[in-house]
Each structure stands twice: as structure tokens, then as C-alpha cells.
Specification:
alpha+beta, five-stranded mixed beta sheet, three-stranded antiparallel beta sheet, 16 helices, binds protoporphyrin IX containing FE
Length: 425
């Protein structure tokens, strides 16, 4: 299917979803079903939940019972209340993600969370960012220079995956020639069995054990050199992390790989897709490159690379007149909060001039707010600066292929065929 047919078909499916979302009983709405995300038809269901029951108990979801929080202010309130809404035992929904995330600091409450976060936070601090900028630009230029002009290619593989993998290799100071292992480990740890990357849990574990072995070797090599600015050196030397168990070490390594991988990758692909869906926005940013930083924030809002974070009630909690009992799974749907019309006017549409684009929820809020947000923004800003300096047209020409997930908003995670025209000087 070409891009235009795809867009028409998507509009048709969305119109059907609007009718369906408006007509079914509330208890039949299941925003946990990955098909809604995969088909990009989840929006009318969120819209109804926001309007009628912004805190809603799904009793019959395909992923088991959970509560949905869909309105912007309630999401912020819950994300700010780590005492009553715990990140333990996991911030994901399914038992596979629980295995690893249970041992990384994103799935811990304070004080333990704060100790481990502090150990690695400098990697995304101002000193490192300044050092990273020329490095990222050089890599962006290298990647763009290698692309064909006027010929169709897969943008996801050639740009989004390549750039994020190179960035991860830099953050870990990981052997460059082996960098595709990082992407593989990330994909293995986040993909459900049905995605086809692994068949049995043993097979999956074997690959993750390889990750543990490789990273442990690198960390041990750095024990005698405390000066590195990379994540492994930081983990090896910080008092709070140097004696972590192998399970915790692997959990945190996977958090750092996954945190920076799918999210940034899908913001890169999603941005190109959004500019194709709203070509007037592309023209605006092309005409005035000072708009790039706000365009980056708006792309991250519009894409919302992680659809939700889960919390678990530490006690019975009353919020907005509803009591959620202790021990329940509560999903803060950032994807829905970012489309909340009471905060973002015309929220479904990409608008690079949106005055409050930066107030999006895509990086979360509160003590777990994304640690790598500045790294991601830096990478996207440089990429758009370099892209706009060389292309007058970046056209999606084929049907984008999405991954199966209700968590990673990977609208274009696998494949996006793109054709470009070079600026004539
Ligand atoms: C557009 C790109 C990104 C998005 C949308 C994103 C999104 C998020 C979200 C939603 C959270 C949880 C926030 C919460 O619970 O309140 C998070 C946490 C985190 N992110 Fe990101 N992220 C991105 C890029 C990155 C990068 C590049 C890195 C690594 C350098 C990274 C590392 C982390 C880490 C370590 C955490 C855990 C923080 C904690 O628990 O204290 N992220 N991210």
C-alpha cells in the first residue's frame, strides 16, 4: 500500500473506531489491547474515557484488570505522589517485563531509587551533554551522508535505529563494531513472544545472559579507571551501585539501553511521519529553523513514545472522588494526557508553534521523570538541523510497519520507506 492509500485507510479505520467508541458500553472499552495502538485507533476510546470516567477500572481487559487514568491533571497528580502510587514491583504490565524491570531503579521507590539514579544521572548532565554535541553532530552527518537521494530506502533502519544505537554506544563507551548488539538486547527484552524475536523464555534468557556477560566484562575493565564519563564507569565506581547483584546490574543496564533506544528511535521516525501527515508544519520549520527546538518538543508530545507508566497503589487511595484499593495496577496514560483538549488545543494535530508543547507528559513527571530527556532532545534537534540543511523534501512513500505493543508507541518501529530530494544550491 502506498502512503496516500495508507492514510485514507487509516482515516477510515479511525472513523469506524469513533463510532465504535461512542456506541459500546464503557465496560467493553479495553485500551490495554495492543491492536488499538497498533492500528492507531486508540484515540476515540481515550477521548471517551477522559470525558466520562478519567479514572476507570477495566475489569475485563485482555491484559487482566487495571485502572486507566486518562486526563492530564490526574496523571500529573498521580505521577507526583510516589508515596501512594508505588513504582514497585514494576512499571510495565506483563510478567516478562516484570522480570527485569523489578531489578532496575525505574521500578524502585525511594530511597533506593534515588541512590541508583544519582549514580548514572551525570551521563545526561550539562557537562556530558556539552561533550556529546559535536560527537552526535558528526554521527548524524555521517549517517545522512550515507543515504541515497531520490531513491526509496527504509528510514527506520538507516537513520532512526542507526543513530540511537550509535548514541547508546557512546553513552556506554561500548565497542563501536558490536553496537548492533545493544539494539538486539533492547528488542529482545521489550518484545513480546508474539513479535517473533524469540520463541521460548530460555532462548530469550540466553540472549540476556550474553548481555550480562558482555557488560560485566566491560565494567570490570573500567574498575581501575575512574575518569570515564560513560555509564559503565559510573556504575563501577559509585558507592550505591558498585556492588550490585548480577540481576540488578542487568536490570539497570537494560533500563538504560531500552530507555534510550525505542523511545528516541520512535521519536525520530514519528517526527518524519508527522511532518508528512502535516506538510504545512514541515514548510514552517524549513522556512524558519529557529522553530526546531519547539518542533522537537511537539514531536515528542505528538508521538508519546511510551504510552503509559504503571503504578501500584501502596494503600487505598481516594482520587477525584474514586477510591482505588491497595495493590491495584494503575496506568497513567501519557498518550491520552498528551491529547487532552483542555490542555492542548486541537491536540491530535502536530503544531510546531504550539505554545505549551513543552508541557507534554511524554517524559513523565515527579521523581522518576526521564533521566535522558535532554539527550533525546539534543539528538532530535541536531538531526532536524542537519536534515533541513540538506533536504527540501523528505517523503514517506510506503505503508509504515508498526510493532506489536500497548506500551511502546512504535507507530513506525520497523519500517518506513522514505524518498528525499536534496536542496539545490
Ligand atoms: C524521546 C525519548 C524518551 C522518552 C519519551 C522517554 C520517556 C521516559 C518516561 C515516560 C520515563 C518514566 C517517567 C516517570 O515514571 O515519571 C522515563 C524514565 C527513564 N528514562 Fe527516558 N525517555 C526517553 C529517552 C531516554 C534516554 C535517551 C535515556 C538514556 C540516556 C533514558 C533513560 C531513562 C531512565 C534511566 C529512566 C528512569 C528514571 C527514574 O526511574 O528515575 N530515556 N523515560
Amino acid at each position: 500500500m502506498d502512503w496516500h492509500q495508507y492514510e485514507l485507510e487509516r482515516e477510515r479505520q479511525l472513523a469506524n473506531a469513533r463510532d465504535h467508541a461512542a456506541s459500546i458500553p464503557l465496560e467493553e472499552i479495553d485500551v490495554g489491547h495492543w491492536d488499538l495502538m497498533r492500528n492507531d485507533t486508540i484515540w476515540p476510546y481515550f477521548e471517551r474515557l477522559r470525558r466520562e470516567v478519567p479514572i476507570y477500572h477495566h475489569k475485563n481487559s485482555i491484559v487482566g484488570p487495571f485502572w486507566s487514568v486518562t486526563n492530564y491533571n490526574l496523571i500529573k497528580a498521580i505521577d507526583s505522589d510516589a508515596a501512594q502510587f508505588s513504582s514497585e514491583p514494576t512499571i510495565g504490565l506483563n510478567e516478562v517485563s516484570q522480570q527485569e524491570s523489578a531489578s532496575s531503579f525505574i521500578s524502585m521507590d525511594n530511597p533506593e531509587h534515588a541512590v541508583q539514579r544519582k549514580a548514572v544521572a551525570p551521563v545526561a548532565g550539562p557537562r556530558n551533554l556539552a561533550a556529546l554535541e559535536p560527537n552526535i553532530r558528526e554521527r548524524v552527518v555521517g549517517i545522512l551522508d550515507s543515504l541515497p537521494i531520490g531513491e526509496t530506502f527504509n528510514w527506520v533502519d538507516r537513520v532512526s535505529v542507526e543513530l540511537t544505537t550509535q548514541m547508546l554506544a557512546t553513552l556506554f563507551d561500548f565497542p563501536f563494531e558490536d553496537r548492533c548488539k545493544l539494539t538486539r538486547w533492547s528488542d529482545i527484552s521489550t518484545s513480546p513472544r508474539k513479535a517473533g524475536l524469540w520463541d521460548t523464555l530460555e532462548e530469550r534468557q540466553r540472549e540476556l545472559d550474553e548481555c550480562l556477560e558482555y557488560m560485566t566484562r566491560l565494567r570490570n575493565e573500567r574498575v581501575n579507571n575512574p575518569d570515564g564519563l560513560d555509564l559503565l564507569t559510573m556504575l563501577a565506581h559509585n558507592e550505591g551501585t558498585r556492588d550490585m547483584s548480577p540481576v540488578q546490574f542487568l536490570g539497570n543496564i537494560l533500563l538504560l539501553i531500552v530507555g534510550g533506544n525505542d523511545t528516541t528511535r520512535n521519536s525520530i521516525s514519528g517526527g518524519v511521519l508527522a511532518m508528512n501527515r502535516y506538510p504545512e508544519e514541515f514548510e514552517k520549520v524549513k522556512a524558519d529553523r529557529s522553530k526546531i527546538p519547539n518542533a522537537v518538543a511537539e514531536i515528542i508530545r505528538w508521538q508519546t513514545p511510551l504510552a503509559f507508566m504503571r503504578r501500584t497503589t501502596a494503600t487505598d487511595v481516594e482520587i477525584d472522588g474514586t477510591v482505588i484499593p491497595e495493590g491495584e495496577r494503575v496506568l497513567m496514560w501519557y498518550a491520552s494526557g498528551n491529547r487532552d483538549e483542555s490542555v492542548f488545543e486541537n491536540a491530535d494535530v502536530l503544531n510546531i508553534d504550539r505554545p505549551n508543547a513543552r508541557q507534554h507528559l511524554s517524559f513523565g513527571f515527579g521523581v522518576h521523570r526521564c533521566m535522558g530527556n535532554r539527550v533525546a532532545e539534543l539528538q532530535l534537534r541536531i538531526l532536524w538541523e542537519e536534515m533541513l540543511g540538506r533536504y527540501s523534501r523528505i517523503e514517506v512513500v510506503g505503508e509504515p510497519v508498526r510493532a506489536i505493543s500497548n506500551f511502546v508507541r512504535s507507530e513506525v518501529a520497523r519500517m518506513m520507506q522514505v524518498d528525499t530530494t536534496e536542496i539545490q544550491v
